[in-house]
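Quick one - inputs below.
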Amino acid sequence: MTARAKLHQMFEILNVSYDASDWWQEESPLEVICGAILVQNTTWGNAYTALTQLIKSEKLCINQIYEMEIVELEQLIRSSGTYKAKALALKGLAELVVTTDEGTLDAFLKIKTSDLKTALISVKGIGDETADDIILYAARRPVFVIDKFTKRILSRYGLTPTRNSYRSWQEFLHRNIEEDTLKFQSFHAFLVMLAQQSCKTKPQCSTCVLKERCFTGCKVLL
DNA sequence: CACCAGGCAAGTA
DNA sequence: TACTTGCATGGT
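Output:
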């Protein structure tokens, strides 16, 4: 079976098992952006606590973040861990947006995909994955997000690119999955859900939607 | 008490 | 190119 066929089948199974419609679909672009930065190397629970603090402070807008004291920002997002680095990333991004073209987030998110990636990556604290999270879920362009889960799950199924770099993984998936924003959004969400909800403690647990083919216990793909 | 979580960047070989 | 380490809070 080709990699393309395997990925297609995997998506079909996940698509009838999980619902990704509430996964970063209804949030505003700015909430998506902050969430993507805040969730770095922590759980969504910790990131969400920090995001809630930002919302409650009523300073969740590009200009407010750009102008507010870094120390205040740090304290608001403290619960997400590595908060000094994340505060710098948020500040850097706000500065980037404000100083680009007309200075609005709307305009910024309309930049050509490749240029958008370059711009985002230039901010300290925003790497490949966070940039692609923003491009996929905030700017809504079809780029596949490569995270630890994607690599771990697909590797279990023998689906690996020739080299292990971020670019190799992304090109591999772009070649073998129909290029569609909604599909990329769902697929990535499914992989995260699968990794988080299935077989954390014991192999082949009953809740895994892939059943005996669950990535933790299985040897063979689908 | 030890370990890890939806990374990133700087340093090393 | 590919590994290693610090970052830091909160949950198990």
